[in-house]
What we know:
Mean pLDDT: 91
CATH class of the largest domain: Alpha Beta
Radius of gyration: 22 Å
CATH architecture of the largest domain: 3-Layer(aba) Sandwich
Strand order of the largest sheet: 2-1-5-9-10
Helix content: 40-55%
Low-confidence stretches: none
Oligomer: single chain
Distance between the termini: 58 Å
Number of domains: 2
CATH topology of the largest domain: Rossmann fold
CATH superfamily of the largest domain: SGNH hydrolase
Structural class: alpha/beta
Amino acid sequence: MLPLLRTVVEIPEFENKITYSSRLVFMGSCFSEEIGHKLEHYLFDIDLNPFGILYNPASVAQSLGILLDKRLFDQKDIFQRGQLWLSFYHHSRFSSTSPDELVNMINQRIEESHQQLRKANFLFITFGTVWVYMLNETGQVVSNCHKLPQKLFTRRMLPVDEIVEMYSDLLQRIFEFNPDLEIVFTISPVRHWKDGAVGNQYSKATLIVAVQQLVEKFSQVKYFPSYEIVMDELRDYRFYADDMLHIGSQGVEYIWLRFSQAFFDKTTEKAITEVDRILKAMQHRPQNKDTDEYRKFLSSTIERIMILRKYHPYIKIDHVLQYFLNEQKKYGYAD
Length: 335
């Protein structure tokens, strides 16, 4: 037998599995983005970062509080920088040259995410750093400084006790709002290098200690070791992006594999494989579509979609089916 040339991080057994009938909410830093995009791609019912990417526990908690209360925004909650209107509660992907458009965009997402959180089976929360920026004028913890002058903000580090107290109260509210929800915390493996190697490790260690205390306190709270998988299983810079700080595509694929092993049963894995085949079929570009071969390809793909919908009615694949039906109609293949 060949020796095992790496340490393998043991992932605890997750009794509750993610299926295509699951409703998911992902919030936070890079793990939420990367794994969330994978789940979106495979057509799971997911609400991904309704405030955009969030890095610190206070910003995530603030955003969850807004969703619980369904607190809607108006123009006093946003500000103008140059030609753009922005929000200190949101990532810069929430921006517009029109204040009314931005407020409507924000409020529509809050209303949708409020409903998704109420019905969700899983909430994944990823922390990236313990450092927060507070707007001096109001004392608000901002989710993004939006490249404004540093003198407008005060930077400080959240201690373990403050994070645990903040989330102990918040989690109680969340479980009252949705008693069936399971919450899974993760720590982003992306390093925040401007604080140096020691500062980054201190930040990650603080987050890990805080999360472990929450896991011990709440039976519905779990931990997925994405940070440890990268640090211990992928100890090689080839798994990083060019900046040597973010995780590269190969590393993301490996974390997705470990995530899949932990949260999907065999039935869901088989459905994902079929969804992947069907989505790849959409990329099929034959040299000549006016052929019997292409006609058979369309018919067989539509048949596969119908079978998939029969056994997995929750998969949101109607738009894919419509694409192939339109192809049939366009080339005169439909009956």
